[in-house]
Design goal:
Blueprint (H helix, E strand, L loop, with lengths): L1 H20 L5 H16 L2 H12 L4 H27 L2 E3 L10 E3 L6 E5 L7 H12 L3 E5 L5 H14 L5 E3 L4 H8 L5 E4 L3 H13 L5
Parallel strand pairs: 3-4, 3-6, 4-5
Antiparallel strand pairs: 1-2
Length: 212
């Protein structure tokens, strides 16, 4: 457990260092990140479906293709299309006492984001938050459910092929690893799962004042 926690912390530190070197990832690089992610889920769709089906005992390939792979691809494509608009500063009204100044809202990346995803849609619920985080210019660590080991192994292999570990990393393991993961001082944490586990995740996030 101590070694696993040290590994998680080391990945987090590497991603923090990478974010410090490039705190504002340019539009073209974010779009390329999303393009690669879209291509990843659309390649070898039968293999993705086989991995999910093996973890489930059986699940129809069409369900995986429509509700997981195609959904993630659409989200990445949509984010790529809207990204310039999302990144643009938004003018807002200026209070009279600040005249003749001008005011605007700027959208800045938070930093390193954690994702805790469940077993029931192991691709979609791990990668949809990844789409959002990459679009925002963040670094991402994902802790998928230990109940889908074959899907997790494929996710780890395919993501490592297109992203360096200091940008996107998969952390695999059981409940103790998940507990250590959630206790990290992330800049933001995505969680999808049961209310019972959600309470524990919220408690761990609150300790670091991590937005959840």
């Amino acid at each position: 457990m101590v070694q696993a926690t040290a590994t998680i912390t080391a990945v987090l530190q590497a991603q923090r260092a990478a974010f410090a070197r490039q705190p504002r990832r340019p539009l073209d690089e974010r779009r390329e990140d999303l393009r690669r992610l879209e291509a990843m889920v659309l390649e070898d769709m039968p293999l993705w479906a086989e991995a999910v089906s093996a973890d489930f005992g059986h699940r129809a390939a069409m369900e995986t293709q429509l509700l997981e792979l195609s959904a993630v691809a659409r989200a990445a494509r949509s984010a790529r299309r809207e990204l310039r608009h999302w990144m643009a500063p938004r003018p807002v009204s200026t209070a009279m006492f600040a005249a003749p100044g001008r005011s605007s809202v700027r959208h800045e990346p938070k930093g390193v984001v954690g994702v805790v995803s469940p077993w029931n849609y192991p691709i979609q619920l791990a990668l949809m938050p990844l789409v959002a985080a990459l679009a925002a210019g963040c670094r991402v660590m994902i802790k998928p459910s230990e109940l889908t080991p074959r899907t997790n192994a494929m996710l780890a292999e395919r993501l490592a092929a297109i992203f360096p570990a200091d940008q996107v990393a998969i952390i695999q393991g059981g409940p103790e690893i998940a507990e250590a993961f959630c206790a990290q001082p992330f800049d933001h944490l995505f969680y999808t799962g049961s209310t019972r586990v959600g309470r524990k995740v919220a408690q761990a996030a609150a300790h670091n004042l991590t937005p959840l």
